[in-house]
Amino acid sequence: MKKLITISALLLATIITILGFISPDGVSLPTYLLILSFVYAFFVFTIFIILKLFYSDMSKAKLQFIAIIFGFIPVGVLALGSLSQLTFLDTLLVIAVPLLIVWYATKRGIIK
Questions:
Q1: What is the CA radius of gyration of the chain?
Q2: Separation CA 107–CA 79 (nearest Å)
């Protein structure tokens, strides 16, 4: 658990450092994708830590699956917001689709 918290803290520090030196408005595509990758990794680790604390009886594979899918929610909202296309319907879809994927996978027993 300490290793996960350390990785999450280092990713947050990296994101803050990158955004401190680079404005996300005028960056090239590879730099923008790098920023989104760090944000995604940060949220996956953070969500996994939170799930592990509250749902310790779940299998590790199920916790990882949920964290990986839910990590797309903030990245999707951030990507749509940076494209100036963030509407209520887009936000609802970015949140609802991962929720449906996790619900379906857990109900069908795809991840055990």
A1: 15
A2: 30
